[in-house]
Amino acid sequence: MREKLQEEGGFNTNKSYLKYISALLIFGTNGIVASFIPMGSMEIVFLRTLIGSAFLLAVFLIKREKFQAFQKPGHFSYLMISGAALGAGWMFLYEGYRRLGVGPATLEYYFGPVIVMALAPLVFKEKLVPGKTAGIGAAVLGMALLGETALRQGGFSWGMVCGGMAAVMYAVMVVFSKKAAGIGGLENSLWQLASAFVTVAAFLLINRGFTFFFAPGNILAVLLLGAVNTGVGCWLYFSAVERLPVQSVAVCGYLEPLSALVFSAAFLGERLSPAQLFGAVLILGGAAYGEALGERFPQSFLRFAHWNIHRTPGA
Questions:
Q1: Where is each EamA domain found (predicted)?
Q2: 84 FRET partner, CA 20 to 30 A, in 5, 95, 122, 201?
Q3: In whole angstroms, what separates CA 134 from the centre of its chain?
Q4: What are the structural domain ranges in the chain?
């Protein structure tokens, strides 16, 4: 009987890993799919958050889950701020995709977890242990390499600013997600996406209005980004992470940006210079090292630190 339970437990764990890795690989294609949508970054994020929110709401209702957010107004407020930061971050990120390329913009975006680690002593009163300090230092050096290479190749650009601002918004999103820890799982993701949608809709209305061009040929890519890359990806992610060890969730989460680099090279022909590749290793390796060897964050925090709806995650 015990052996049978162990076998079932091992099967469920393997199934959860398969779901988690599938979600990360799906998230890694976000920039690739977006490159086939001839729209501005605001319009793309508007449609992505609209379709993704609708998909997650449908899943939430089908599962007959109950809303907890209204019983915790303080946490709900934090969650709305987190979602607004998510929407703003995605607008910057997708603009970075257009101007810098998927690979470099993704790497800048994944400096976000490093910002959170650096802020942890101030915001969360957590001790900055040597493992985290070393990881932060390596990631900062990696960002310096990326920036120096970009400046040599084309000078300071709006794309670099967008990538950096996406990382800052990522950090804001994670900080307020942790403060809203009383609302978890699929509902947390649903409210974040809904808040992101409202934020992007407001920006779009103020700047351009809702009269944007939507060609029939864009429909497949838009649906793929909204329903699959956001809706299905998030469902796979949240159905897996609660069954996996926290450290595995943290470290394996970096498969997403690594896959984004591979996919951008394979499908878009993007190439990183040796200096940029070394910078990528320092950023991703430093962030992963700091999380693996530093003090452990709560699982609810780690889920959002690596979400790429997205990243996070991201991206």
A1: 18-146, 158-288
A2: 122
A3: 23
A4: 41-63+70-305
Strand, helix or coil for residue 210? coil
Q: What's the DSSP call for residue 297?
A: P
For residue 70, what are its two tokens? 């209204």
For the chain, the straight-line distance linking the first and the last C-alpha, in angstroms and rounded, comes to 44
Does this model's pTM top 0.90?
Answer: no
Q: Are 237 and 307 in contact (CB under 8 A)?
A: yes
Q: Looking at this protein, which amino acid is placed at residue 58?
A: A
Dihedral of CA 116/121/124/130: which sign? positive
* Helix/strand/coil for 155: coil
Handedness of CA 118, 121, 124, 127 (dihedral sign): positive
Instruction: Give every CB contact of residue 213 below 8 A, 6+ residues apart in sequence.
Output: 39
Report the alpha-carbon angle 234-238-244, nearest 5: 135
Across 107-114, average pLDDT: 84
* Residue 46 CB neighbours (<10 A): 25
- Residue 217 amino acid letter: G
- 301 pLDDT tier (thresholds 50, 70, 90): very low
| pLDDT tier at 295, thresholds 50, 70, 90 | very low
Q: Is 129 helix (H, G, I), strand (E, B) or coil?
A: coil
Residues found in the chain: 315
Q: At 232, which amino acid appears?
A: V
- Give 44's contacts (C-beta < 8 A, 6+ positions apart): 34, 37, 94, 222, 225
Report the candidate in 257, 220, 269, 162 with the shortest Cα–Cα distance to residue 38: 220
CA distance 90 to 69: 24
